[in-house]
Design goal:
The complex is a heterodimer of chains A (170) and B (437).
Chain A: E1 2-9, H1 12-24, E2 32-35, H2 53-78, H3 95-118, E3 137-144, H4 148-158, E4 161-165
Antiparallel strand pairs in A: 1-3, 1-4, 2-3
Chain B: H1 9-17, H2 25-51, H3 66-77, H4 81-90, H5 100-120, H6 147-167, H7 170-178, H8 183-193, H9 200-233, H10 245-271, H11 280-311, H12 314-324, H13 329-348, H14 355-382, H15 397-420, H16 426-436
The chains are: A alpha+beta (170), B mainly alpha (437).
């Protein structure tokens, strides 16, 4: 059975040291979460999170582009305007519409993927979230029950205050 | 390190959250006054809908009057936030942090107002949905080649992007506010925060999303004002059919947007007592940007008029002469004075540069840029290629009322926003503090 414990740091370097120690003890990034009320820049390799946001956003833009081209093409042919011999469907004069809808695709995909990647709307309700003190860095560790003592010791050695088991909020 | 960065965190939060609590008598009165003016504008619009578009001053050949001037002006103002904020975010300019939210809010509200004008300008506004592409029984589809269709897609995309660009950095702040709020506010903040907990996953995703959004929104913002310029430049009307119209409009938009931002920031600074957060340093930087844009604007205006004058094409020269030494010359020279001379003197001479002079110059620029839109739209329509079709335009009380109401609406929306959300981003201000240390 796994449980969660937290340690509060006032110094970013101490938090980094704790993370490195825990990683050396076999903890992976999925077991460790840093909480703070402002962004904490950790050096590369300390607690990296994979992100596919750029790729997904480009894909979203491409999908919207294809959809809008198809939409304009078929609607112009199905409900043809009198064009006086000019092409019914012409790419360049409709280029602005294609461009804007492509960008709309990128914008909506960014929002959607942000919500997905941050885990905002798919949070496991069973996982407790610590209350963050102002200007503090809180490290939450998921560990097996029998490793609780050893993990707490690592946090304390690194300089964590208030090391405690984290209970789910009522 | 600036003086502001030495403020303790708790003090920062208290100072920036203070304006959210309660409403002073002055605030309530101002909001009531602005709402009354906005309501008067709505009544004027209602009168126009009831009586028909004929109650506006637009007559042949000037079919685009104040409404189009306002449309272009407000779309230009909307470039304050998103474009400026996006540029400063992408270039990692640290001083931007107390400025960005105020700027992004201007964008969202200015776009909402600007986006209303095509509807206000419609003869039968209840049929506005004909603008949208949907299959209908009349076998009529919108013409995707039409610049009006370009406007619909461009403004819709820009508004969506701007609202998301404003919303994303609000999430950490509303999450914190939710911990201290009650009642309706609590519900609003909770919904908006989406359960934000401050985990590193959330912060990473937010930063990536903001970087991407800044890049995307920059491209969209430039395209939006280019499309607005092409509404004019695609026609062969004298002094509209110009290849530099798109960049000319984009420069003008950033120029007026910056001016709007400086005025708004100064009002916020004074009324919310944020002198420690919006410092002379911020205004100094914005003033330098305004001066740069003033010079760029002058360059484009000069280039545009020089080529027309040198070409000496009679129909173009009719409009040129009307602007420079004819019927419209007072507006033209006032425009040059407030858009170039005033900023050049007040902001170019270091000794004179201050928050007050930057605000004075900005108010001048706002007037000047409104006049510029007026001069771009009205003289060419008054003096078309067919001399016999020439005509004059004077706005009716309906158009004037609606124009004034848009400014009141902007103020009212801004007041309400500043009462609901911190106008300076709390978490970003903290990050700035750490980086500088």
């Amino acid at each position: 059975m796994s449980l969660y414990l937290t340690g509060t740091f006032r110094d970013k370097r101490e938090a980094i040291q704790a993370i490195e120690q825990l990683k050396a003890n076999g903890y992976g990034p999925e077991d460790l979460t840093v909480f703070s009320d402002e962004p904490v820049e950790l050096p590369r390799g300390v607690l990296d999170r994979k992100s596919y946001m750029s790729l997904v956003v480009v894909s979203g833009a491409v999908v919207f582009f294809l959809l809008v081209v198809a939409f304009v093409y078929y609607s112009q042919y199905n409900y043809p305007l009198v064009t006086g011999g000019m092409p019914i469907f012409s790419f360049w004069p409709t280029g602005v519409v294609f461009y804007e809808i492509t960008m709309l695709g990128a914008i909506l995909t960014t929002l959607g993927w942000f919500v997905w990647e941050s885990g905002l709307l798919r949070r496991d309700k069973g996982v407790p979230v610590p209350v963050i003190e102002p200007e503090a860095i809180c490290l939450r560790v998921r560990c097996a029950a029998q490793q609780y003592e050893a993990t707490a010791a690592v946090l304390e050695r690194a300089g964590a205050k208030n090391v405690a088991k984290l209970e789910k909020a009522a | 390190m600036t003086a502001a960065t030495t403020i303790p965190y708790q003090q920062v939060r208290d100072d920036l959250w203070r304006p959210l609590a309660g409403a002073s008598k002055r605030y309530t009165l101002t909001l009531a006054l602005l709402c009354a003016v906005a309501l008067w504008g709505l009544i004027a619009w209602g009168y126009q809908i009831h009586k028909g578009i004929g109650v506006a001053g637009i007559r042949r050949p000037v079919f685009w009057g104040f409404y189009l001037v306002d449309f272009v002006f407000w779309i230009g103002i909307s470039h304050a936030g998103t474009l400026i904020s996006a540029i400063l975010r992408l270039t990692d300019a640290n001083w931007r942090k107390p400025v960005t939210r105020a700027a992004e809010a201007i964008t969202a509200f200015a776009l909402m107002i600007g986006g209303m004008f095509p509807l206000i300008h419609l003869g039968r506004v209840w049929l506005f949905y004909w603008l949208f592409p949907y299959p209908n029984s009349r076998l009529l589809w919108p013409n995707f080649r039409s610049p009006l269709m370009w406007d619909v897609t461009a403004i819709s995309t820009y508004l969506t992007g701007s609202l998301i660009f404003l919303y994303l950095p609000l999430i950490p702040d509303v999450a914190q506010l939710a911990e201290h709020a009650t009642g309706l506010r609590l519900r609003l903040y909770r919904v908006m925060a989406m359960g934000w907990s401050g985990s590193d996953r959330e912060w990473h995703a937010l930063e990536r999303a903001m970087k991407l959004m800044a890049g995307i929104i920059l491209a969209v913002a430039v395209s939006v004002h280019s499309v607005v310029a092409w509404d004019f430049a695609m026609a062969i009307t004298p002094m509209w059919h110009s290849t530099i119209f798109a960049p000319y409009f984009v420069v003008g938009a950033i120029f007026s947007g910056l001016a709007g931002l400086i005025v708004a920031l100064n009002i916020i600074r004074k009324t919310m007592h944020l002198e420690r957060y919006l410092t002379p340093h911020h205004f100094g930087n914005l003033a330098k940007l305004l001066l740069l844009m003033s010079l760029l604007w002058l360059y484009f205006t000069f280039a545009e008029h020089l080529t027309v004058w040198y070409g000496n094409e009679p129909k173009e020269m009719n409009v040129f002469n009307a602007r420079v030494r004819g019927h419209f010359s007072p507006e033209f020279w006032v425009m040059v004075f407030v858009n170039f001379v005033v900023p050049f003197v007040l902001l170019g001479i270091k000794r004179l540069r201050s928050i007050t002079t930057a605000t004075i110059a900005s108010i001048g620029v706002l007037i000047g840029m409104w006049l510029e839109r007026y001069l771009i739209i009205i003289p060419p329509l008054s003096l078309p290629r067919l001399a016999a079709a020439a005509g004059r335009y004077s706005p009716s009380w309906v158009e004037i009322s609606i124009t004034v109401a848009t400014f009141a609406s902007m103020g009212a929306m801004y007041l309400v926003f500043s009462k609901l959300f911190p106008i300076v981003s709390v978490w970003e201000f903290e990050a700035d503090e750490e980086e500088e240390e």
